[in-house]
């Protein structure tokens, strides 16, 4: 059934089909239909960051930037849902076209640029949702906020989403906001993490609960840079790391239509780079900080591969677009089969 739907959707432009799919999933969620349209996975609860996840396979940020279809995605069998990236103020993102399919490689290039309706709109959507499972909210900075003042935007979002999120992801690795990735390195990263950690302590006291902070990193760092990031996260007392965002590399898609478009590449071509980053992080972190793995999972065995590399949870994005809800169950089953 999904293969037929995909054939029809792929006749539309990528962004049009994305918006239509989001509308349909959202409508199905409001009507309670999505669980009837696909076989959801058996429960496989796992505890990470002090939170109990229904299963270890979640929706990655980016598919539902505004929290428009939280109930719909949860009914498809995801063990957790992450929405965003959201910024303090609404912004249109980069000019269209800004999403490109590479179907021969099961890849997608996007340069969306944190297009979203702003944090207040997202919070209204969260308040209206019936979902009571683990909800991650991914936060970023507005494109016109100077990198030197990026911490201000992150703190605004952190303050606003804290009471509504199960965990909060700090996106410092999107390649589509100028200068953003510089926040992953050296003193810039340490200063950002220190500010976030201080505010997390203050908000814990105010709200009477500690909401975990996860940092999302890129797959394009050297092993040495990845190790430095791991050490900075430990030193700052962060709660998790998400590996990885999209890649600027075009390895594996050379010569394909749209391969030279600017933006981040996701899907099957990023799988090995992302898994390698997970392995480097796992080696350095040695179990002291959980890893959420995302990047290139298009089959259940790829999800198991991420867990074997050292991840505690996985997330789907492009693989979900190409394979549909069946990939959720396939991934949960593959992880369960590891024992």
Automatic annotation (TrEMBL):
Residues 46-333 form the Dihydroorotate dehydrogenase catalytic domain. Substrate binds at residues 65, 110-114, 171, 176, 245-246. Its cofactor is FMN. Keywords: Cell membrane, Flavoprotein, FMN, Membrane, Oxidoreductase, Pyrimidine biosynthesis. Its EC number is 1.3.5.2. Belongs to the dihydroorotate dehydrogenase family. Type 2 subfamily. The active site is at 174 (nucleophile). This is Dihydroorotate dehydrogenase (quinone). Monomer.
């Amino acid at each position: 059934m999904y293969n037929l739907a995909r054939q029809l959707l792929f006749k539309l432009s990528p962004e049009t089909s994305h918006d239509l799919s989001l509308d349909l999933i959202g409508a199905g969620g409001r009507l309670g239909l999505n669980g009837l349209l696909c076989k959801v996975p058996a429960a496989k609860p796992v505890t990470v960051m002090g939170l109990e996840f229904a299963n270890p396979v979640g929706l990655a940020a980016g598919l539902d930037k505004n929290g428009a279809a939280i109930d719909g995605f949860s009914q498809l069998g995801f063990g957790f849902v992450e929405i965003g990236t959201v910024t303090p103020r609404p912004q249109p993102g980069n000019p269209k076209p800004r999403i490109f399919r590479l179907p021969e490689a099961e890849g997608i290039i996007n340069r969306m640029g944190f297009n979203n309706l702003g944090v207040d709109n997202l919070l209204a959507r969260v308040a209206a949702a019936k979902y009571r499972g683990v909800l991650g909210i991914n936060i970023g900075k507005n494109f016109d906020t100077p990198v030197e003042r990026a911490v201000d935007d992150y703190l605004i979002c952190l303050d606003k989403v804290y009471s509504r999120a199960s965990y909060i992801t700090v996106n410092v690795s999107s390649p589509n906001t100028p200068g953003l990735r510089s926040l992953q390195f050296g003193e810039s990263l340490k200063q950002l993490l220190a500010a976030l950690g201080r505010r997390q302590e203050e908000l814990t006291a105010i709200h009477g609960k500690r909401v975990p902070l996860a940092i999302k990193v890129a797959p394009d760092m050297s092993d040495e840079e990845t190790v430095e990031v791991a050490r900075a996260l430990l030193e700052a007392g962060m709660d998790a790391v998400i590996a990885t965002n999209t890649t600027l590399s075009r390895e594996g898609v050379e010569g394909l239509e749209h391969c030279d478009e600017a933006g981040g590449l996701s899907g099957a071509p990023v799988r090995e780079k992302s898994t390698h980053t997970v392995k480097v992080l796992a080696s350095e972190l040695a179990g002291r900080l959980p890893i959420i793995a995302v990047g290139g999972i298009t089959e259940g065995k790829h999800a198991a591969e991420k867990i074997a590399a050292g991840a505690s949870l996985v997330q789907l994005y492009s693989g979900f677009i190409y394979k549909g809800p069946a990939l959720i169950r396939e991934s949960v089953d593959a992880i369960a089969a590891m024992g």
